[in-house]
Design goal:
- By secondary structure, this protein is an alpha+beta fold.
- Helices cover 29% and strands 24% of the residues.
- The protein has two helices and three strands.
Length: 106
Amino acid sequence: MANAQTLITLDALHEAILAAIRQKFPQLATVVAYRQDRGSLPVPACLVELAELEATDELDPGTGRLALQARWEARLIIGFRQGALNPGLEIRKLAAALAAWVHMQR
């Protein structure tokens, strides 16, 4: 667990988040941050981005370091052809499962 003396880099934070998603959702063929390749995308996929960093006095550790609260976004993508499955329902089920797992994780 991180404390006021722990240095957390953005690289390490991204990798930890991606690894946790991959572990929890092994059915995802792609889990990446800031995907730049515009070619074919192995699906189902989870595309993660750090959307916002906000300074917060509530989390200030009192060490002179800047306390930040991060807001992340995840985009889920599935294939349109799901056989007998309804893609509209399947994407919502995947989104609900991810949201339930992410809820209150810090």
